[in-house]
Structures
1.
Amino acid sequence: MRSEAKRMWDRLETLGRVGRTAAQGLSRLAYTAADKEAQKLMAGWMTEAGLRVYRDSVGNLFGRLEGRAKDRTIMVGSHLDTVRDAGLFDGAVGVVVALEAVAALAKHCGQPAKNLEVVVTCEEEGIRFEKCFVGSRALVEGLTDAELDAEKDASGISLRQAMTDYGLDPRRVREAMRSDIEAFLEVHIEQGRVLEAAGVSLGIVTATAGQIVMEVEVLGRQDHAGATPMDLRIDSLACAARMMGCIEEYARALGRPAVATVGKIHVEPGAVNVIPGKTRFHIDARDGDPERQAKLKVAIEGICTGVAVERGCEVRVKTFLDERPVRMSSDMINLFKEVADAEKIRWLEIASGATHDAMVMARRLPTGMLFIPSRNGRSHCPEEYSDPEHILGACNVMTEALRRLAY
């Protein structure tokens, strides 16, 4: 293992001891003691690298290499907060790679023309609070007083109170907005099996998929399970099951990167000897292309309506979220390709099915993102793993890309 890879690996393992759970995973929820401890480790490593360390009003952590142009900044980083019982790599890889890249440039290239900043964003996962991307949104969109009070965790603690307990001043959250950032770059694990299946060590992200969340309520007729013949039933669950199967078949036929998932079902009255009178389920549908995503949504609505008519049920379809796909910067995509080719690293263009800080930043800024393969596609679990050589390859590409952008 090369020395740079070993240093990054050692740091990942050190971070992996913070927030350890009984299931041998990690749990570093936003604005908790474990979150603060992980940031403290990163702040120490940033200081060792000669970076100026500071935290903004929402809790984002920065390590800054001052450039000659004080009002022009290239930013690189990711997050350290996790889901419950997480692995070592989600988010943390991007932070460790960012620090290694900027530290190498500081050592070998000296002062850049533009500021280089490593960022550790806060509350990316949206696990403690349902509001994802608190840190990245604060940087480019701004947070409102209303959401600080509206967002509460399972214990009833508001986002405002959590920030206060963390040592921040929520009255100053608007001060986190930045106007000097010229580009944002992020490295992340893929969290899927596409790169591994293709046998390549680097993914160049073209877009983050949009997300549609829909609730489908199917109304049938509640009857006795033993006394009602099959041909006289109006079974809401059987109807819903047919809808789910057709939705899955349609998404498969549409092809990658389209996906449709039913992960939540509620049946009433929920008794073994009663034909379900009402079934409610939720659909998460995604695609990386706006037109295909719109087509997917229309198809799902049509499937639900058609199956309901066929089965004699009523159906109500509500859309709770319809977020459009976000394209990465073509300039950043081309830059990554050039650098990866020069490094003789095999790459693949890939759309991200998951959402990331890069998605938020790409709405406002030129943004680029690299993926590292995940072994067996595992993520959000203790079995999460990425090869150290793949991490090193991504770091080398990121280092050169940052050099070209900032020097």
2.
Amino acid sequence: MTDAVVTDTAYARLDREGQVRVLRRLARAGAAAYGLDVARLTLVEHGYNTTFRVDTRDGTRVALRVNTNSKSTAANIAAQQAWVHALRAETPLLVPDALQTPDGGWFVEVPTSADGPLGAGVAVRVVANAWLAGPDVGQLTIETAREVGRAMAILHAHAEGWTPPPGARLPVFDSPLFGDPVRLPSDGTPLADTLGEARERCAAAFAEVYAGARPIALHADLHGGNLKWRQGRLAVFDFDDAGMGVPALDLAIATFYLRDGEPEREQALREGYAALRPLPDVAPEHLEAFLAARQLLLANSLIASSTAGQGIDPQRYLEVTATRLRRWLGGGRFALDPPWR
């Protein structure tokens, strides 16, 4: 039985409603395997992966994620969930605790039907966490950016003394595309040449920064879509992209989403981090290369996504990516220019 990464399947050709119907059935099977007595199953997000809220008959609420496009292996998911569980128990950071199956596992595998749109011999992994109520943060304000910096510092301080349990491991993010297959065009066009030159320069920066470094666990996706406000506290969720890397990479990823012409928010992010621990020691040009690498990673991932209804034209996104990277290559500073929306 193979893992589910659902590109190039009948599922990928379904519309949004058709995909959600398929995943709802898998989510119900996954909930049953977790021992949840489902009263209601509500779609929360149909994106890179798909999340449902489970309301059980005893009043418990659970976030159930069906991994469709996720590249996380069984060992990766075990490490992600074990880290979330440790963070919940050992730090003041608010995270949705990872739930275990009746036999102590961190996820369940739901087989798909042989004649279904996902194909024969495919297993979809389903992951459960405690429900995290509260509004998404969305666009960061100056004050929220400062809180994100503090949360990141807490994550890094804990990660320095944490190791995955036996049989669990996180991927190492020591290259621009995080080890993913290269899907970016390489057809000799000006666009492809720009992407290739940017990837080479980013790879050189990764090699320099990682030389002699000790990677630690990183969230690797700290932006407003993975943050909530709960009773006046910032909460962090969605550890599906977690991996091992240098702290400066986490800082760069969060900074990426702030590079829209408001430097005060980026400064607040750094101030929040520095209030709890020293800022990562990284040369400015290397930090800019990490920002550029984030752009490459997002473009590469989008090409592989099977999710319908995202409203993103991959070719147009590649053109925006190339323009942004061309300006970075010429001027040394990365910016979200032109804006995507």
